[in-house]
Design goal:
Shape: flat
CATH superfamily of the largest domain: 4-hydroxy-3-methylbut-2-enyl diphosphate reductase, catalytic domain
Structural class: alpha/beta
CATH class of the largest domain: Alpha Beta
CATH architecture of the largest domain: 3-Layer(aba) Sandwich
Strand content: 15-25%
Order of helices and strands: EHEHEEHEHEHEHEHHEHEEHEH
Length: 318
């Protein structure tokens, strides 16, 4: 392929968000302060590269707290948040918890609790089985929150009292899909209460906006991210819906199927909120080896949000 020209539009913003930066920092700070091992319940963020690099530094990942042999070691909870059951379990085992839950996920948890106090039946728009959804639903007793995944679900939903409802959402959904589902709920239940400010986080929204801007102008779109990362999967869907003929999700450059890029003149590249920039660079390098590439940065928003570390780590650092 040697000298074939390839124009690459690099989306900005892309990659790490403030919640992911903070979660990784929580584990790194804990390792520095307490030494290894530091246990982490669930992947700290949905990216194999990040998880492997933290493992190499001494982090040990478990799915449930009972897998931890030593209750004297600190345990970090992932950025996706956990249910009350997990907190109770940690207390019962006398575990010292470092809570790396993204503050924007914690905001949704607080909304759920507030709606329940006001006697609202709650509808959560989200994906079944995602750890964030399990954590949010687990803030309240079983049955207090009903999960709605699609417009069809919203049409079929039968509340106990249609005048006494509230909706909340997972933070990493497709902005457009969610608007459609919430629109259906509002049409059916005009009195339904919603969040003051959208639950879909700034980073998810910004990354989708950048993709919508680039996707219609390119032949292919690459989303760097993990298959179990909700926000990365949504970026791929958004790209195809916005008019890109084919969008692919890659964890590493080694996954590139070069047949997909034969005869292509223009591609877009972005990364999910849990994907490190080093992998974006790895993908660009792989293209540079085969094509004569020209990279153009397309910026649709500036991000300056930073979340501070949990107090227990801040005090220690001071």
């Amino acid at each position: 392929m040697g000298g074939q020209k390839l124009h690459i539009l690099l989306c900005a913003p892309r990659g790490f968000c403030a919640g992911v930066e903070r979660a990784i920092q929580v584990v790194e700070e804990a390792l520095e302060r307490f030494g290894a091992p530091v246990y982490v319940r669930h992947e700290i963020v949905h990216n194999r590269y990040v998880v492997e690099s933290l493992k190499a530094k001494g982090a040990v990942f478990v799915e449930e707290l009972e897998e931890i042999p030593d209750s004297d070691r600190p345990v970090a909870f992932s950025a996706h948040g956990v249910s009350n059951r997990v907190w109770d379990d940690a207390k019962a085992r006398n575990i010292s918890v470092l809570d790396a839950t993204c503050p924007l996920v914690s905001k949704v948890h607080k909304e759920a609790i507030l709606h329940a106090r006001r006697g609202h039946e709650i509808v959560l728009v989200g994906h079944a089985g995602h750890p964030e959804v399990e954590g949010t639903m687990g803030q309240l007793p079983d049955g207090a929150i009903t999960l709605v995944e699609t417009v069809e679900d919203a049409r079929a939903f039968q509340p106990r009292d249609p005048d006494n409802l509230a909706w909340i959402t997972q933070t990493t959904l497709s902005v457009d899909d969610t608007a459609e589902i919430v629109g259906e709920l509002k049409t059916r239940f005009p009195k339904i209460a919603g969040p003051h400010k959208d639950d879909i986080c700034y980073a998810t929204t910004n990354r989708q906006e950048a993709v919508k801007h680039v996707a219609p102008t390119v032949d292919r779109m690459i989303v760097v991210g993990a298959p179990n990362s909700s926000n990365s999967q949504r970026l791929r869907e958004v790209a195809e819906r916005a008019g890109c003929p084919k969008a692919v999700l890659l964890q590493r450059a080694s996954e590139i199927n070069w047949a997909d890029f034969e005869g292509v003149e223009k591609i877009g590249v972005t990364a999910g909120a849990s994907a490190p920039e080093v992998i974006v660079e790895e993908v660009l390098d792989a293209f540079a080896e085969r094509f004569d590439i020209e990279v153009e940065l397309v910026t649709t928003a500036e991000e300056s949000i930073v979340f501070s570390l949990p107090r227990s780590l801040r005090e220690a650092a001071a």
